[in-house]
Amino acid sequence: MSDKKAQLTIGSDSYEFPVMQGSTGPDVIDIRKLYGQTGAFTFDPGYKSTASCESSLTYIDGDEGVLLHRGYPIGQLAEHSSFMEVSYLLLNGELPSKDELDTFEDTITRHTMLHEQLSQFYRGFRRDAHPMAVMCGVVGALSAFYHDSTDISDPMQRRIASHRLIAKMPTIAAMAYKYSIGQPFVYPDNSLSYTGNFLKMTFSVPAEPYEVLPAVEKAMDRIFILHADHEQNASTSTVRLAGSSGANPFACIAAGIACLWGPAHGGANEACLNMLREIGTPERIPHYIERAKDKNDPFRLMGFGHRVYKNYDPRATVMQKTVREVFEALNVNDPIFEVALRLEELALEDDYFKEKKLFPNVDFYSGAILSAIGFPTTMFTALFALARTVGWVAQWNEMISDPGQVIGRPRQLYTGPTQRDYVPIDQR
Ligand code: ACO
Questions:
Q1: Structure pTM?
Q2: Comparing 19 with 263, which gets the higher pLDDT?
Q3: Strand pairing category for 28-29 and 5-10
């Protein structure tokens, strides 16, 4: 808490509120006593000006294009770290020592298998079900299989549930994919890395040996790092709100997956890839740029713009480098890469995009990479959910461990009818 105070005047009455300061970032006016003192609420749909919690996990400065996890810049983590190390960092607050990382990886590895009966659960879905529909259902169902880690007042059970969720998510996502294409489920191989194991469960078949390509494994791991956490976004806030009632962690993460599914959140890279394919060749780009600028045309450049980043999305820089590496490693000669590079160049030179501070976001290149690796577009959001699970779980743990935690319960500006008497049906 700082010495600063915020003054609020409503009519002829004046009120004073404390101003909170984080370790960095904007000041936050503490209005917890606003209703008690003034009888008024604040109005902030979409929470554009509201801090819903205190958190020490992730910091974003959208104007400067900064993203830090526990203080470490995302570019450094993507370059030098691994998804397992970043997961440890998000969960525990510090980078692990070699021994700590080994133990953590060993623990996660030992939770990769799913209860065998869960495979029956998959068979209840239609083969053409969207993988996210399957993920919502299967993750929600985990609480029916792992009763021994649903007591959220027990820190040990919370830890086990967190490890189970991080460990089982690749297995769940890979099984959703296998089911959709009618291939047999592939059991986890604990001799592989977290990411290598996921690739094997997704792309191998029992009939042939499978080799994890190091460049693809690295790129995939990097994509997981880039999606691990992103502060109080819609799905994370959903997990926190669901968890604030004391709901079990499996149910909370299922709620997060449901929220992530929406095209304004996790579904944008699929839309971006479709757009790049529709554009097809660099000569057609100016036409699409003109369409994006035309107020009478609903078309927007997918993968451009961000609610928080009004400067370059730091994750997009890493993605651009990764797409090149993957295309080279897999010998992919897809014209969409050239289209993407040229589109970025032309849009960044254009006054419309400059004035509105519209830059490529993380989704601009990720669809091209995932498609080159072999994922169908319907799996893109499922991969995002897989990676974001660690962020959701870390944020949920942070909330539950806070002794001051209360149930989330926003208020509203009521605009419906005021009280009136019931009218019997024959008199209406
Ligand atoms: N193409 C063309 N114009 C755009 C674009 C775009 N991609 N994005 C924003 N604008 C324009 C808007 O038309 C608006 O113009 P106006 O001021 O003349 O009305 C202005 O820029 C501000 O746009 P808003 O929608 O108000 O900005 P907001 O911050 O609310 O939206 C959003 C951000 C939803 C991401 C938006 O930029 C968009 O729709 N982008 C395309 C979809 C996309 O890539 N989403 C992925 C986000 S990243 C993620 O979820 C992981």
A1: 0.91
A2: 19
A3: unpaired
CB atoms within 10 A of CB 85: 18
DSSP 350-418: SHHHHHTT--B-THHHHHHHHHHHT--GGGHHHHHHHHHHHHHHHHHHHHHH-TT-----------S--
Pocket of ligand 1 (CB under 6 A): 264-265, 268, 292, 300-307, 356, 358, 361-363
CA distances from 43 to 46, 47, 231, 412 (A): 10, 9, 22, 7
Q: b/e per residue, 337-359, with b = 16+ CB within 10 A?
A: bebbeebbeebeebeebeeeebb
Instruction: Respond yes or no: is residue 27 known to be catalytic.
Output: no
Side-chain half-sphere of 363: how many Cα atoms within 13 Å?
26
pLDDT tens digits, residue range 316-330?
889 888 888 888 888
Q: How many CA atoms lie within 13 A of 399 on its CB side?
A: 28
The Å distance, Cα 405 to ligand 1 centre, comes to 34
Instruction: From 306, 353, 384, give the residue whose CB has the most ligand 1 atoms within 8 Å, as the site to mutate.
Output: 306
Q: pLDDT by residue (tens digit) across 170-206?
A: 999 999 999 999 999 999 999 999 999 999 999 999 9
The residue ranges of DSSP E strands in 22-92, in sequence order, are 28-29, 58-61, 66-69, 72-73
Helical (H) or strand (E) element with 20: strand 13-20
Model pLDDT for residues 392-416, shown as the tens digit of each residue: 999 999 999 999 899 999 999 999 9
d(C-alpha 191, C-alpha 26), whole Å: 46
- Provide the total of helices (H) and of strands (E) in the chain, helices listed first: 18, 6
What DSSP string describes 87-134? Answer: HHHHHHSSPPPHHHHHHHHHHHHTT-SPPTTHHHHHTTS-TT--HHHH
> What distance in Å separates the CA atoms of residue 163 and residue 214, rounded to the nearest whole number?
25
Q: Is the backbone of residue 231 left (phi > 0), alpha (psi -120 to 50) or beta?
A: left
In the β-sheet with 72-73, what is the strand arrangement from edge to edge? 58-61, 66-69, 72-73
Strands (E), 244-289: none
